[in-house]
Amino acid sequence: MLLESAAPGLYCPAGDFFIDPWQPVGRAVITHAHSDHLCRGSRSYLASRESGLILRARLGNEAQIQTLEYGERLDLGGASVSFHPAGHILGSAQVKIEHQGEEWGVSGDYKLDPDPTCRSFEPIRCHTFVTEATFGLPIYRWPAQSEIFATIHRWWQTNNELGKASLLFAYSLGKAQRLLVGLDPSIGPIFTHGAIENFNQLYSASGVLLPTTMPVRAAPNNTNWSKALIVAPPSAQGTPWMRRFGTLSTAFASGWMQIRGTRRRRSIDRGFVLSDHADWPGLLSAVQATGAERVWVTHGYTSVMARWLQEKGLEARPLETHYVGETDESSETVAMSYSETSLPAEEQQP
Ligand SMILES: [Zn+2]
Ligand SMILES: [Zn+2]
After folding, report:
1. Which tens digit of pLDDT belongs to each residue from 243-266?
2. What's the pTM?
3. CA 80 to CA 14: how far, in whole Å?
4. How close is the Cα of 309 to the center of ligand 1, in Å?
5. pLDDT in tens, 186-200
6. How far does residue 339's CA lie from ligand 2's centre (Å)?
7. CA of 171, nearest ligand number
8. Residue 90's closest CA among 250, 241, 170, 209?
């Protein structure tokens, strides 16, 4: 096997490297900079050029980081490695590995919907594909993005009229920037939480054009919050930080909002179904586009999706990982946890 499942993560013996290891290793090949795919302390890191600045910020000045352009190949031992756009967040990549005519693809996290803050997903051809399955259940089907943004704008406008601030929770790396680019700044001023501001700066430095926003901490004391939309990480919910905004309406932008009850249990007024992962049809079409005969399923609803692919005649199996769900990148706390053997975790949370 070109790749095998080892204790620190997916391992390539031919090239002597791990992909997204969750423990420090010799050489780590990184699909993207989310904390469930990146751990500190490895001797060296290899990633896409576009993820370089975020990786540097997360790993520190001492880390040895090498980057490649999308499509560029690097020989590691006997294997050749290249990165291909995954459309998930800035710099996110699928990893393609070739060795003696055998081709493998590892998806990392991906989505097929267009996102102006990162390169669009490009299908890769391979014999074996390792796919994520965060939303790998047939119930997950995303509405059109234009529809979601129109709903967000209506919510914001209504709050304006009612004299309420609009507080929108979103994961601080990736989702927040995608939201900012899609928001209509003519409705009112847009403010950001510090954790999001940090990633905004890295996005801007990487060449992504973001709208003008103001950090909440830089806002004057007499700021009229009732016209404002404030983007904050989910970890800010229920903290004293929120008090300054006065009367407010809260919302959360996440794929998990598709499940009825999630929003209510998290005590959030509105939920917007906006995900940086592929939905069920997206996952299936991505798998099909690879032409792969063998599929390993990781991250999420692995058994359900593997079984479905088996029924379609593919050699599919779930892959064990340390997956804990989409994490809130600002605090590294788990925003949504998941157990493969039962209902989605947020259905069980009090
Ligand atoms: Zn991710
Ligand atoms: Zn992930």
Report:
1. 999 999 999 999 999 887 877 777
2. 0.91
3. 9
4. 23
5. 999 999 999 999 999
6. 15
7. 1
8. 209
